[in-house]
Structure formats: C-alpha cells, structure tokens
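For reproducibility, we list the full input for the FE2/S2 (inorganic) cluster complex.
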Amino acid sequence: MSWVKAAGVSDLSPEYPTACSPSGIPIAIYLVENKVCATSNICTHQDALLTDGYQEGGMIECPLHQGQFDIATGRALCAPLTVDLKVYPVEVREDEVWVQIEDKTS
Ligand code: FES
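The corresponding predicted structure, in tokenized form, follows.
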C-alpha cells in the first residue's frame, strides 16, 4: 500500500466530487460535512464516472441509472446496484489530499 497525492483541499467542494487519477487509478474525492472521503470514480454497475453524477450530502448518485452509494462507506443504497463501491483511506496533509492505494504488482 502506498500513499499518493490526489488533490488539493482548495479543489474540493461540498456540492460535487472532484476527479483525480493518482497512479492511473480513477478516484473521486468528496467533501462531506468538512470530512474528506475518497471512492473509486467508476460505478460498480457499468462504466459511468461518478464525478459526472449528483452529490447530495453523503450520497453520490450515478449519472447513468441513478444508483446511489453512501460516500463514506461505499455501500450500494438502491437498485440497480448490487456491488458496493471501493473506498480509499484519506489523509489531509496541510492543503493536500492523500489517498492510500494498493501497489501495482506485475
Ligand atoms: S452505471 Fe451506475 S447505476 Fe448503472
């Protein structure tokens, strides 16, 4: 596991997620009640970018079929979703957001 810089705190908004791709991994960063969270940016149903979706508080709604996930836990909240979303550990270091990702093995 490695920590990688993903975004700047000033890039974040409580109204919409921010897309980033540290080490080529698509990740969405959220600001929920002053807490920073990170999930995969790819919906578990099909290949939709959650950063194109609709965030309301601690919920992100997929733009394609309106499946909803809990941002903090990644839990799938409704149909058509059947698979939870991957969440990433987050640390805020001064004005930077760092996420912990799995090391690539080849
Ligand atoms: S692609 Fe996200 S709910 Fe279908």
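The chain has one domain: 2-101. Residues 15 and 56 are 7 Å apart (CA to CA). Both points were considered when choosing residues for closer inspection.
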